[in-house]
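Handout, section B. The chain below has 402 residues.
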Amino acid sequence: MARVLIIDDEPGVCWALQQTLEGAGHEVDVAGTAEQGLPRADEADLVFLDIGLPGMDGLQALGKLPGKPVVIITAHGTLDNAVEAMQKGAFDYLVKPLRSEEIPVLVERALRRTELEQEVGRLRDQLGASTTVVGASRRMQDLFKQIATVALSDAPVRITGEAGAGRTLVARALHRASARRDAPCVVVEGRFLPSDLPVDGSLVVKDPLDLTDADRTRLLRSIEAGDGPRVMTTSGEPLPDELAARVGGVSIHVPPLRERRADIPLLVAHFLEREFRYDGGVGTATMTLLEGYDWPGNVRELRHAIEVATVQARGAALVPEHFPPTVREVREADDDDVSRVVTRLLERIPDGRLHELVQESFERALLEQVLQATGGNQVQSAKRLGIHRTTLRKLMDRYGLG
């Protein structure tokens, strides 16, 4: 049962909605204006909010309900306002006249999302105390939500991702977010599966392709019996179809660091503050270097690079020269590449148009690469470039990139 608040100035709409909700077992409170309803919203699990209210309208009231699931009620003539409300965070909207059969399903969806968001919040708190499962990028937020969802079940889990991306850390986070959190989480290499499997908790098998035939049989029997530990496997590639089908469960992919570069500053701060207790700081040039490197070793390589730099810096601010040569050489190679390109342009471009054509050459290439990296998303591209979307649109038109 949920506590639902209806804010609508039409008594007939309120009555019909109240009957439907109470018939589904929910507790209902009704207010005719935003001024009356907002003070009571803290006690509600869900709010139905009319757009066209007298006094403070629904869009204004929506801004005073952060974090609360809100379903907008709108007439056909105000659908544009409903779309605006969705963009501002409303969960969904209903168009008058209301269809009673849609309402119980909508309520369940809204409450389920709230439950998942609470799980995500709890998981983030747990992850914050762990080692390197850190991130605010969309890829990591999606991963956190997936972990929170999967943690609610007891199904086996197949975790894939490149070496150093954090596969084992994700498995541990899943364990901590599950109902088995008070039991042990045992991590083993596939080639060293213990003769006695744990009877409870979680068993994380790294590189399951290294399992012997006998150990694979024992593991699959434990999964099929369902009376042992929750089994999670971690590997750098998907399991063969036959083995994946027998293991069953769900699959989680941990993205490589190069696909979530926006998290690099957070990871750097995390390592410096939480692991190495280093307060020397990081310069802008250094952060640019770290964000531009591809990190083939992923988060593990970044952590090692930060550790090396803190030893070299001896309390001073970290500069590029403090980092391993593999990281620095990328910047030096990039600088050499730029110099070679400029040299070639100097040889072919006539005097008088040098600055203009060099700028156009680099600007077009930059736009193409950024648009490709964001899948053509203009909002993300403009944000990454640090320009207004209108400016981006003009540049795309100028270079025929539309």
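Note. Residues 328 and 402 are 36 Å apart (CA to CA). Compare this with the example in section A.
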